[in-house]
Amino acid sequence: MSYVTTLAIIADRFDATAVVARALPDLRFKWPITSTRPYVDDAGRPTDVEGALRQKILLAWLLNQPMRLHRESRELIVRGSRIWGVFPPEGEHEADFAAAWWNLPDGIEEELEHRRSCILHTVASIQRHFLARYSSRDRQCKLGYDSSAACDPFQLGQMLKFLLSRDLLRLADYAPGREPHASRLLDLEDLLATLKQLPSYQVDKHHLNCGPRLRVDPIIDYVKAMLAANVVSLPLAEWKRRRSDVSWVAGGDAPPVFAFTRALASDQRLRYEGAMYADGMARRLFTAGEWDWTPEG
After folding, report:
1. In angstroms, what is the C-alpha Rg of the chain?
2. d(CA 6, CA 53)
3. Weakest mean pLDDT among 10-24, 51-65, 193-207
4. For helices 66-79 and 108-135, what crossing angle results, to 10°?
5. What separation in angstroms does the CA of 37 have from each of 48, 115, 149, 290?
6. Which residues have CB under 8 Å from 121's CB, separation 6+?
């Protein structure tokens, strides 16, 4: 794979990528299958998985392969990168990332990192929202005469216990120099699957419908559907011709507030993969500035 990628890089410098693209079938080149192995092995050593994925993205861009760029760019957004984030990778040197595929050209690197950051902020807002609701003075337990003041603190404690045990939340003190939790290698699909496991314990047998589980499930299903939308991936032709229109980087306008209503949760149009309506909704969801996950109470 690296030999073909290097050949494409050299061809790009001599404006001869079209020649290489036409020659690939004659060379019987087979695109490697995306590996499901982690970026880092059990001993903490980096594997070649991310490097191979990045080479496929670069090769698809240089040789004008839109479907492959669509698929591989989404894979990198979902799985993350060792080099993204504020803090540099531990135990590695700049020379380890000197190859061209570690800094994807034409703004692709920055765009993919930004899109992943947008999606992470969206998912993180779900747990922030419900932690705030169950720690507020507004009682979430609404069983009429059977409502209990102990129900909300119980549900808050269960949420905190679950999120802390899954390493999705950290309680930090005010000591300086605390390094924030690294999310650069957090798989987005695994993250959503984990949040679906939020426990549904009750403070007693009368509180069967209390707790955040029933309210979080449709939200996670909706976000999963939006993550599968085509707009998450990088479109090759549009990125070359009208980059400002397809980029997720915010313009001059303030980001909107996204409200998750019951009508939105039950919209049947979102069930069809690749629907233009789903693409528009996905972009509005992930590029929002704030999220209200329970606007109807």
Report:
1. 22
2. 14
3. 193-207
4. 40
5. 9, 23, 47, 34
6. none
Tens of pLDDT, residue by residue over 157-204, are 999 999 999 988 887 655 555 555 567 788 999 999 999 999 888 777
Determine the Cα–Cα distance for residues 217 and 281; give it in Å rounded to an integer. 19
Q: At 218, which amino acid appears?
A: P
- The Cα–Cα gap between 263 and 66 comes to 34
Q: What is the pLDDT of residue 179?
A: 53
Distance of CA 178 to the CA centre of its chain: 24
Look up the pTM and report it.
0.90
Treating both helix axes as pointing N-terminal to C-terminal, what angle do 108-135 and 188-195 enclose, rounded to 10 degrees?
10
Q: How many CA atoms lie within 13 A of 116 on its CB side?
A: 27
Q: What CA–CA distances, in Å, run from 205 to 159, 160, 208, 293?
A: 19, 22, 6, 27
pLDDT single digits (tens) 235-253:
999 999 999 999 998 666 7
Query: For tokens 């970026």, what's the residue?
Result: 39
